[in-house]
Structures are given as structure tokens and as C-alpha cells.
Amino acid sequence: MRKLAIIGATGYIGSQLLNHLNTHFLVTALTRNNTPFAATQANCLYKKLSECEDQFDVIINTSYSLHVDKATIKKENVLMSLAIKKMAHFETHIIHLSSLAVFGFGLDREIQASALKNKNDYNYVQSKLEMENLLLSIFNSKQLSIVRLGNVWGPENNSWTQPIADALTWQLPVMPIHTSFSNITFIQNTVSYIHFVIKSGERKLFHHLAEFSALTWGEVIESVSIALNRKAPFIEALPPYPKSLLAEFQLVLNEENSIKALKKIKNGRFTSACFIKILNNLANISNRNSSSPSKGSYTIDPVFYWVLTCNTEFKNEVLPEWKPIVSFNNAMALTNEWLSTAGYNL
Amino acid sequence: MKTIGIIGAGAIVELYYINTLKKLGFNDILLFDTNTERLTKIACKFNIKAASIDEINRYCEAIIIATPLDSHFKLCKTFCRSKRTLICEKPFLATLADFDLLTKIAAETDTTIFVAHIRRCFSANELAYHHLQQHDYGKLLTAHIFEGSRMNYQSSSNYLHNNPLGGVLYDTGSHAIDSFLWITQLSTAAIIIDNMIVKTDKEEPSHECSIQFDINKANVYLQLSRIKLLANKMVLTYERAKVEVPLNLKPNIIVSTNNLMQVVSCKDACINYMSEAFKFELYDLLVVKNTEKYGIENFRNTTLVLEKLHNER
């Protein structure tokens, strides 16, 4: 049996991969934290990434640094890529799961199935980009496959399925006013494709997986809305998505509350990379002077809205022999079945 | 400003308690943990003093107990002292006998004990609590409660795997049950519990459980999981209305009467993040001293229900 390692086996995609591949390979779940709960639940070998001395025939990496500090992101990603190098032999197939977000949350960069330069961006985007480039600098195209996933959808998915079901349940804005591309890949298809890439002898460096990309968010949300018997409130006020440093500065200048303005700079797409040192000092000052708490209006993560209103398609570019195992209708039927058992449509 | 003692240097203390105390101006903090390596690490990280239990007992006007459930009674008893405030993390105590004895000791020693059931300050919980106080929808007939998420971290003390009281019932279940009792005004009412059926995925500590019971003749269906993602909501069916309440930081509740659905929103008075919730809670406990919401007497029924359900498993 071939030895396969999954790094990030406790996440949504990692755990689904673990369940599926466990019967086909000798799987080791690798995680960065101490004995994570989810890993101990899986019926497979478990190891801590930093302590793993084994070598594997296949390594699937779903992880990347999630740190809030950009310098630490870089450091952690380097350590992770070196750990992968250590676990690989000359014929190891490395499958790195990346994201469509490497083209920006609003897909405002040219979409191409090739290498991209590192750029300043939101931490998630920058970290995903850096991880791709670190692995490209270590492994050649015969060993490495970078699979950029579309928006992963499916039962128990906490990135898109759950937030949309929650927004419908609690009647928060969720339906885009204009047509937007869902850029979806259904979890069972995602897992099936990764397995196909492992089995296939053909090596392709960049893969874009979003088999239902052309379907609109409107169609997806409508289906959930019917299942939950809830109308879908429209997204009327869209949080601005900055496409340049200048545009982002303009947004900061328009902010009346100075603490909020500082936070915007600190967490900004481009500003965070430029002014982090000054801001850290200011943040310390503001912390020392903080007063009694005060409540504000409810805010939803702007990324959720940028993705729901994205009018750029992330087209499927995969190995031509692969066909999705689940159709869109069946994908939605399976999703709706989960919504019911999870208590959503009560 | 008071000197604050913290017992336990686990994830919640590292992520929320110390930062929040500092933000509220409580900079004089003493920390204790049985794991000396962990204690040193967290004390250094936040530049606070690592201390012994005795030092904390001697110098602190307020003490936060953030340890696993089975240590709460002994620690609370040790720290009871006149004019002192004790803040004990949820779940509070495992038995009603412990609860009644500790209440007596607290009264005798003039100690104020608060239970840190943080969800009582969540926007939707407050909204539902006040809404149900102001509207008479008749008798409560049924309650469906779903609380579940995929847990992907491990506790420092490993109590989720090796402690019989470390199952999902006392973990997130204590939050769900406490929210239910508080919102429905049952937390301080006389209650009768019967017809209990408890199913767990394995011996305690369990990771999933499904529970049915009657409380004052209302049927309660409770589904808990730390493996599966569930809707994280509570549906309360009264004689004349259905009230849906989120068990997380979502801002709205849904009230349906005569097939008419109404969204009741907290609008401009919302808590958006857990860090904000901790700031509100600790402000309420250490500055305002909100006994009406967090005082020990408000948690007798939560303790009672949890003990009965745990014994029935």
C-alpha cells in the first residue's frame, strides 16, 4: 500500500480527504497543533508535522499560515514547506491545495493557470500565494501539482454553506442584486478529483477546480432558500473592495471613527503591509487607554459579500479525463438533506 | 485597581481572559496552573506574575477560576473570603449537593460568586430574554435545541478524552441548557424534570449526544455534537408563537405568530466577536457586579438539569 500524508487533516477538506483516501492508502494525518481533537477521532495514523521523520509516496497539503502578522506568516510558511521537503523522496507526488483567492477575493487579478508573483494583499490571500511559490521553489513540475480550488460547497461546509444557511435563517442580507458566479466545487467532486490526480500518471502543474463555476450564487441561494422556507434578503449595501493602495486610503479617510480607521489600515489589503510598525505602536497606546465597552451595529465579514457578488468566473481547468461524480442537482439535494438533519429547517 | 488572580492557564485564558482584563485596566494579574511549563509560558507571554495558590489567596480581591469542572468546587471553597469576588468558568458544578453547600459557604463568608456563562451577554440571548418577558405567548410546549461544530483543537489538560465530566453535555451542552433556561425564565423557577432519554455516542466523555426530556411538561429535544456541524439554534414553540434564537453571535431572533414571520433585530447594540463578549462579561462581573444575571443563585437549575441528564446517560 502506498504511503500518503495529509497535512491539515482536521480541516473541512482535509477530513473529507482522510475519510475517502483511508481505504486506498496507508494514510497519516499530519497536523501542526498538539494532538488535535479531530485527528484523534479519525481511524488512521496521526503525527505532529514538526516531529514527523517518515517519508511518503504522496503528500497532500491543505495548510498554510493563518497568523495575523505578515512576517510570522512568511516564517511559518517557510517552516511548513521545509517540513514537506523533508518528508518527500525523489518520486513523491506533492499535491498542494490552494485557492481561487490567489487572484484576490474579488478575482480582480488576471486568472491564469500558471505561477503568480507574490503580492501584498489580505493575509489569507498573501499566505496562499506565498505557499504556492515556496513549493514551486523546492519541487519541480514532475513532483508538484497545485490544485486551486473554487469555493468549496457541501454538507457541513463552514466557509460557504453554513454562512449562507445562517444568513437565510436569521434573515441577514445574502442574495446578490446582480448576476454573480458561484465558482463552486462540490466537496465530493473535490475529493474525487484529488484522488484522480493521484491515480493519473499524467502530471499537470496547475489545476483550477470549480466544476460548477458558471452557476450563479442566485441559483445556489434560491435552492437553499426553498429548502429552509425562508426568503433571501438582498445585499443592498456592499462593503467596498479596494483595488489599489490609493483606493484603500480613500476608504480610510472616509471613516469618521479614528479607532475603526486604524483597524482598517492595520487589516487592510495593501495598507497593512506598508504601515504595520507604526500601527502596532498606536494599537498599544489605544489599548492602554481603553474604556468601558460599547456595543455597535452587526457586521458580517466583507469577504463573504465580495465573494457572493463576484462577477468574474473562475473556469474549470482540470485533467480532461476526469468527470464530476455528483451533478449540481444531486449536490444541492445532499446539501439540503444535511440542512434538515442539522436542524436548519425546523 | 484590584489585583486579579487567575487559576488555569488554558486556551481561554490565553486567548481572552488576560487580554480582556488588561483592556479593562486590570494590569495587576497573578496566574497559577498545575502545569509549570505552561504557567511560565503564558506568564512570560503576557508579562504577568506566575504565582502559587497561596499567593493568589493572600493577595487577590477577585479570582477567576478557569479550570476543568471537577476542580471547581474545591477551588471555590478554598478561595471563599469576605468581600472577595469569585468568577467561575462554566460548567459551574457537577452536583446540586455541591451547589447548595457552596452557596451556604459563600453566604457565611460573604463571598460573591459569579458564574461566567458568557452567552448570557450575547446579543440574541439578551434580545430573546427581554422579548419573552414582554410578550405572553402562552405555555411553552416544545423546545428544539441544536448545538454542534467540528472541533479541531485539543484542550491543554486533555479533559475531553480522559475526564468523565469532559463530555459534550457539560461542555457546549451547558451553554445550550443555560441559554434555554435563562431565555425561557426557567433558570430561577421551580422546575420538574421527567421522561428523560439520553443517548450518547460512547461512554463519558462523550462527543455526541441526543437528549429528550420534559421540563414543567414542555418537551425538550437537545442535539449536541463536537464532531458534526449543526444549526446552532433553539426553536421554542409556545401556545401562540414560535420563537427561534441563535446560539451564537447572530443578531436577530425570529418570531412567528399566525403564520406571520417577524424578524426582531438588536440593530445597533450588537456584540460581533468573542473578544467583545469577554469585555462585556468581565466589565459586568468586575465593575458593575451584575448579580441579577451572573450571581450564583441564577445557576441552580442549570446545575440541576445537567446533573440529572448526566446521571441518566
Describe this protein's structure.
The complex is a heterodimer of chains A (346) and B (313). Chain A is α/β, with parallel strands linked by helices. Among the domains of chain A are: 3-149, Rossmann fold (3-Layer(aba) Sandwich); 245-305, no CATH class. In chain A, 40% of the residues lie in helices and 14% in strands. Chain A has twelve helices and nine strands. Chain A has a seven-stranded parallel sheet with strand order 3-2-1-4-5-6-9, sandwiched between helices. In chain A, strands 7-8 form a two-stranded parallel ribbon. In chain A, α7 runs parallel beside α12 and α8 (245-253) packs antiparallel against α9 (258-266). Chain A is globular and about 60 Å long. The model of chain A has no long low-confidence stretch (mean pLDDT 90). By secondary structure, chain B is α/β, with parallel strands linked by helices. Chain B has two domains: 4-118, Rossmann fold (3-Layer(aba) Sandwich); 120-271 and 296-312, Dihydrodipicolinate Reductase, domain 2, CATH 3.30.360.10. Helices cover 36% and strands 26% of the residues of chain B. Chain B has helices at 11-23, 36-46, 53-59, 72-79, 96-109, 123-134, 159-162, 172-183, 274-288, 291-294, 300-312, and strands spanning 4-7, 29-32, 49-50, 62-65, 85-89, 112-116, 140-148, 193-200, 208-215, 218-225, 233-238, 242-246, 252-257, 260-265. In chain B, a hairpin with a 5-residue loop joins β12 and β13 (252-257). In chain B, α1 (11-23) crosses α9 (274-288). The longest helix of chain B has 15 residues, at 274-288. Chain B starts with a strand and ends with a helix. At the A-B interface, α2 and α5 of A face β7 and α9 of B.
